[in-house]
Amino acid sequence: MGFLARLVNKFISPAPTSAQSGIQVTKDAVWVYLQCDKCGERLALRLRKSSEIQREDDGSHDYQMFINKTVIGNDCFNRMQLRLEFDGMYRVVNKQLENGTFITKDEYEDANLQGITR
Ligand SMILES: [Zn+2]
User: Tell me: the pLDDT tens digits for 32-59?
Assistant: First the structure.
């Protein structure tokens, strides 16, 4: 548990359910689930590893890859600034989101099941 606890402590926003809350890494993509702070819209973002992830290989950081992205939803013009940092195994070591909140995949799918209109 020691390693996991240290990993969790590195997250800026608290992760209530799991360290990877809000982010799922698949073979070729990174899925991010988030909610707009302004209008409450919930979004699922698919970031392709091949094109979205940038490398930071000079060894002076505790991450090796990162994503910077401005996210704009469908319901308003709130600009959410997303930053994710990964180690060499595509594990998230740091995540930040301005003007938005990370949610879990379950929360995203629940919102869709309830038929929230766009
Ligand atoms: Zn919004």
Answer: 999 999 999 999 999 999 999 999 988 8
* Structure confidence by residue, pLDDT tens digits, 52-94: 999 998 888 899 999 999 999 999 999 999 999 999 999 999 9
Give distance in angstroms: CA of 60 to centre of ligand 1.
36
Of the candidates 25, 43, 24, 26, the residue with the CA atom closest to the CA atom of residue 34:
43
Instruction: Give me ligand 1 centre to Cα 35, in Å.
Output: 8
C-alpha 72 – ligand 1 centre gap (Å): 7
The Cα–Cα gap between 85 and 102 comes to 15
